[in-house]
Amino acid sequence: MFDLPGSWVWDYWFADDGDLYHLFFLYASRALHDPDARHYRASIGHAVSTDLVEWTQVSDALVRSDAPAFDDLATWTGSIVRHPNGTWFLFYTGSTLAPGGKNVQRIGYATSDDLMTWTKSGDAVLEASGPWYEKLNSGTWHDEAFRDPWVFADPSGDGWHMLITARAPEGPVVGRGVIGHAWSADLRTWELRAPLSAPSESGFGQLEVLQVEVVDGRPVVIFSCLAEHSTESRHGYEGGTWAAPAESVLGPFDIAAAYPLTDRSLYVGRLLQRRSDGLWLLFAFRNTDEDGAFVGGITDPMPVAWEGDRLGVQHLAPEPR
């Protein structure tokens, strides 16, 4: 497990350079006392590992910018890919406050030659806009949800795709969560496109920290959402991380058919394929204890496998020696 004694650790993502695994994570000081205050004090930390179990913290990756900037409140969750020229791109969420105290989220990026030293590109490259995505002025949600970029190369070689936690401007308020979508030819300039899923009466208010993978030959999308941010049909599940069927890495995605991969005690599930043997592993952060209090810290890897039509968590398998 990865945790810090003086800080809360929660959302995270990985990069693999072929030698080391790199863990990038959100953290904020426990001196805040209130764990709910961590979101507006988040920085992006960095740790490395050879086995995905023992981690060594290294220099932080990113902190918020000075105002005015799209990320002058906090730097939030993202993902990392490597351009064919060797440059690493860290896409992340920048948060800033709008008049009235609600936060607006946009997406920017930073680049690095070695995964250790990062340079921000400057302004945001993507933000929510109509007609496809809900804006803050709709008044239906607690923020302008447009965050958690998951970037991957097009399977056919046609540029890059980004999946985004976003909301549709219509539909049931607690079912408007959609898979936002953008495309780029070069990772620097992005074209916003229509969402890859639709709002639903059996859906979710937000599909947090999206990830799509092909696990043992079968595509699947995972995301996180708690019962209080979902439609009534989901309230009995108490899910934390969810999985949903996908026909390909670009959908269609059947969010109405989503099923819980973890309970609410584990949040922000991430899939990673172990380099040594190709085994697919699930990670999550520890969300709540038995009393409902926030915990924090990232779990050890948990193998996953298909159980019929559903992905399920298996018993831990040690890494081959």
UniProtKB/TrEMBL annotation:
GO terms for biological process: carbohydrate metabolic process. SUPFAM superfamilies: Arabinanase/levansucrase/invertase. Its EC number is 3.2.1.26. The keyword Hydrolase applies. It comes from the Bacteria. Keywords: Glycosidase, Hydrolase. The keyword Kinase does not apply. GO terms for molecular function: beta-fructofuranosidase activity. InterPro entries: GH32_Enzymes, Glyco_hydro_32, Glyco_hydro_32_N, Glyco_hydro_beta-prop_sf. SMART domains: Glyco_32 (SM00640). Residues 19-242 form the Glycosyl hydrolase family 32 N-terminal domain. Belongs to the glycosyl hydrolase 32 family. This is beta-fructofuranosidase. It comes from Microbacterium saccharophilum.
